[in-house]
Fold this sequence. Notes:
Elements: H1 16-30, E1 37-38, H2 50-63, H3 79-90, E2 102-105, H4 108-114, E3 125-129, H5 133-141, E4 148-149, E5 152-153, E6 157-160, E7 178-182, H6 194-207, E8 210-214, H7 236-239, E9 240-245, H8 247-250, E10 258-261, E11 267-269, E12 275-277, H9 278-289, H10 295-304, H11 307-333, E13 338-340, E14 346-350, H12 355-366, E15 368-369, E16 371-372, E17 383-387, H13 392-405
Parallel strand pairs: 1-15, 3-6, 3-7, 7-8, 8-9
Antiparallel strand pairs: 2-10, 4-5, 9-10, 11-12, 13-14, 14-17, 16-17
This protein binds pyridoxal-5'-phosphate.
Amino acid sequence: MIRINEHYQKLTASYLFADIARRVAAYCQAHPQVRILRLGIGDVTRPLPPAVIQAFHEGVEEMARPETFRGYGPEQGYPFLREAIAREDFQARGAQVEADEIFVSDGAKCDVGNFQELFAQDIRVAVPDPVYPVYVDTNVMAGRTGAFAQGRYEGLVYLQGTKANGFIPDLPSQPVDLVYLCSPNNPTGATMTRQDLERWVAWAQEHKALLLFDAAYEAYVRDPALPRSIFEVPGARQVAVEFRSLSKTAGFTGTRLGYTVVPKACLAYSADGTPHALHALWNRRHTTKFNGVSYPVQKAAAAVFSPEGRAQCQALVDGYLANAARIRACFKELGYYCVGGDNSPYVWVECGMDSWEFFDLLLTRAGVVCTPGVGFGACGQGYARFSAFGSPETVEEAMERLRRILPSRP
Ligand code: PLP
C-alpha cells in the first residue's frame, strides 16, 4: 500500500489569498462600477529593464547557433554569473563571499524551502511571527512540528514581532538550533540594523546554531547604515546562510532566478559533535536534485550586475520605494502606527481593529485591497500589509481614497 507523508495532513490550508480573492470577487460582482485598487499582492508590475532584455535576447540567439549552443550547464550556475554576484553584491560592500560559495537557482522560495533538508529531524526551529509562510510549512512537511493549535504549530519556537520591539524579534529565550530571519521583512517591512545582526551572529556562535537569512528585499535598503547582507557582520560566515532573489530586485518574478550563499566556513554538526561543512552538503543536495537555471536566464541575470543594468534596476526599485513612501506618508499623516516602507516595499499598518474587519472596510468603502496581517501569524492580528508594487497612479489614487474614508487617529 502506498502511504502518504502524514505530516502534510498537519498543514493548515492557506486560505489567506483565496479568501482575499473570494471577497474581492464578491464585491466586484455586486459593484461592477468600482475600480478596485490592489495593494495586496507581493508581485512586481514593471517590465524587465532594457539591459536585461537585451542580454536575454542574446542568450536565446546563442542557443540558435550550433557554435554557441549550450546544453546542461554547471548545476551551481555559470561562473560568469557567480563571479558577477560575488563581486557586485558582496565584495563591493566589504563582505567576504567567493564565487564558488554562491549557488544559483530558479528562485529563493525553493532554496529557502529546501535548505532545511540538510538538518536532523529533531532540531529546534525558530521562525518570526508574523512570518513568510514557506519557513513554517516546509518544516511542517519535514515532520519537525506537532499539530496546529490556536494559530501556531506545536514544537516550533515563534519569535514575536510586536509594536514593543518594532517588529524586530528578540533572541530566543529557549534552546533553538535553526533560526529563520528576514530583513527587510516580508510582511512587516521592518529592517534589522547592524547591531541586531551582530547580536544574532554572537548568539548563533555561542549556541552552535545556524541563521538562515532571507535577503530577498535587500535591494530596497537605501539607508547606508543598514546592512544588506548578513556577511557584512564579522563572524557570520561560520553561522549563516543567505538567500537572495532577483524577483524584486530586477523584476524576475516570472523569469525566475535566485541564489544562496553558503560560506565554506559555515558548519553544522553530527550527533557526536563532529563538524561538517554545510557547503559540501548543500552542493551534494543541489547537484543531485537540481540541473541548473536556463542559459538565457543566467545571461539576463548577469546583465543585472553590469553598470547599465545596475542603474536600471536601481531606478526600478526607486519607483517602488517612492510608492512605499507615499503609502507610509499617508498613514503617518492620518496618525496610524506603521513600520516599513522606507527601506522596504511593504508598509505594515496598525489597523485599530481586527485585520479582516479593516480589510472589509477598505474594500467596501474605498475599493482598496490590502493583505490582512493575521494571515501571516498570530502577531499579525490587528495589522495590515500594503505592498508598493503597483503603479504610482494606483498608489496615489488608493491613498486619496483612504484619506477620504479613514478617520485621523490621535
Ligand atoms: N523570501 C521572501 C521573504 C519573499 O517574500 C519571497 C517572495 O515573495 C521569496 C523569498 C521568494 O522569492 P522568489 O521569487 O525568488 O522565489
